[in-house]
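Q: How do we represent a protein-ligand complex in a form that can be generated token by token?
A: Start from the inputs.
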Amino acid sequence: MTPPTSDSHAVPTVIDETKPSVARVYDCFLGGKDHYEVDREVFQQIDAVVPQMKDLARSGREWLIRATRFLARSAGMDQFLDLGAGLPSADNTHQIAQRENLDARVVYVDNDPVVAAHGRALLEENDQTHLVLADLTRPDDVFNHPTVKAAFELDRPLALMQCSTIHHVSDDENPQQIMDRYIELLPSGSYVAFIHFHDPEDGGKGTELARFVEDIFARGAMGSGYFRTRRQIEGFLRGLELVEPGLVRLNDWWPGGPRSTPLTVADNVALAAVARKP
Ligand SMILES: C[S@@+](CC[C@H](N)C(=O)[O-])C[C@H]1O[C@@H](n2cnc3c(N)ncnc32)[C@H](O)[C@@H]1O
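Then emit the structure tokens for the protein with S-adenosylmethionine bound:
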């Protein structure tokens, strides 16, 4: 098991139970159990008004499973850098990838000490799976991390999982520059799996929902969640070739079967894509 990094990137090592955290609030949405009262308060404010956001969180995990399976099986990826790992869920990237390819290597990155405390045992099940405490807004630091360098052959294609992470990065932190740098660092033939909160700009329910959730996140003092336009989200993937069906709603990306329930307004406030670096 890799010890927590004492690192230069100012990643907190102490759990602050007085402030909500993105990883723990997300765990509430997924019906997990690793959260505190402050996290549940944020969750309940959203859930009371838009219970469908729970379905969106679950759709995100289901999308991640489908995308990882595609990457390991059809795209032949055997190195996975999973940024913003989150708390362990029923099926995590390494379990899916290693089910397809026993030799697949996975490095999870997160900056939440709860993910380290509660997740390390589950997310580091074997020698090919590691968890690194680092700041994903610093691509060069992530790629130069000793665990990342030891686990991967960085001159061979890898799968970069950037799922529901960049929408927690404010414009002030320059998410475009961060994504450009990650894409620059990836060897040709690599893939990016991407989920981002979306403002559908429909002048109605979708945009209202986006602003409502943004506002609650902002008041929760945990760092915000930003709902960006399709154009902005497409920009984060510039230089890459989108895999069919492109940048779409989670449930429209190679669904596991025909839909049995109608899409809700919450389905319109996130977009996902898998894209390849030529
Ligand atoms: C909404 S969760 C998504 C979890 C997982 N990727 C998924 O799609 O199910 C976002 C995760 O990103 C992590 N995160 C947010 N900002 C980060 C940063 N600057 N550096 C590292 N991790 C970060 C949070 O701690 C949280 O675990």
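The chain is about 40% helix and 15% strand. The two ends are 35 Å apart (CA to CA).
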